[in-house]
Design a protein that fits this description.
13 helices, 2 domains, 381 residues, alpha+beta, four-stranded antiparallel beta sheet, 17 strands, six-stranded mixed beta sheet
Amino acid sequence: MAYPSVDQLQKLLAKEVFHYAKDTKKAAGRALGTFVEIITFYYLKFWGFERYIAIERPLPEYANDDLTHNVEYSLHPAYDKKMVEFKDDDLPLTAKKIAGHKELTPIGIPGDSIKKSKVLLSKDLTLRNSCTICDLRDLFLNAYLDNFSQGIARCAISFLHRKPFAIFECKRVGVEEGVKKGPQTIEKAKQGAYVARTVSSLQKMRYADGRLGGLIEKKDGTFCLQEYYSLLAKVIASNDPELLADFILTIGVVSNHGNWFTSENHNKELKVLAQSYDWLLFLTDEGIAQFIDDLLLHPKKEFSPVRNALLASYTGKKVVNKFTKVKIALSADAELQSYFSVNAQAIEGWFIVIAPAQKNLAMLRSELKTLKSKDWPRIHS
DNA sequence: TGAGGTGACTTAACGGCCTC
DNA sequence: GAGGCCGTTAAGTCACCTCA
């Protein structure tokens, strides 16, 4: 790695980018959290799941609608899809404008269900990833920009069910000056663990002998109970609405930061997360450092739009941030897609699978593909 | 009338301080 | 050292206003 640690990289960012902030290290740490989110999003996009993704959508706890949690990325069953096109004269592409497209008028979208402040592509070519157009009872419509060339914006509209089949949460916690082990880590771990353990119908329980068990209540009040990962595999492979209807695969992505030890030598906080999410991925120091060096600190010429989007977003003045998981400069989006496509093999190595044991990223991708391909209208009926 | 800017507000994530 | 709490920073939503 070109840098001794991510902590050193954070200090470099603090000096070079966040010099205006009252607490430069804190601002740089906050931005590193954003980078972890962006890396996760573009990897999912590279995997082909973009048209199923919602961002920061409130998700109720299982059988407890009173409490909702905004989850970073949720992957939803797609009931339908439409393709629409707009000319560059039509910019900005607001939710209202998209909902009024002739391809969508037969649906009869009620005016009051259309999102007021959502813009898929603004006049200054800022893209909104996963732009929600409207909520229609159990479904919501999300727009995704496929490409924008020769004056034509081609957009995909996904009809997504409100109940996701998978969620992703990203966490980063830094290391304090002069301290090797961060006390605050347990707080972040608890926060993530709580959400991971409360949203799915597949619940975790502990046997007296220490084994992890899983249980799902059936309609008749009886329980399907067995060793957790066996039941998880059974649910993913099944087509049984009783098992699948409220099941959510939970995935956590945590970045290394020097005080969670190594991926092999887990400390308490990492163990809490590993036993709370179905999958826990560890984004390595080397990975995040490579991303920052390649795209933000010393980018090749073709990646300069990414660096420019970052620098224009963090100036100390009030500007629209064009380098987040939601809003990103269109030129930076294109280069990020290209970077993730060209470097796919290396990027796969940035992630270490902490849990489940003996599994790899290809298996996670396969599980997600299996889930997205289910006959969801029948399962939800 | 609709696009775009602004400010109030909520939610979340960060590092660091404080207590035990 | 462990863990609770806090101030700062930032993202996102929404209502409201201005202006073409």
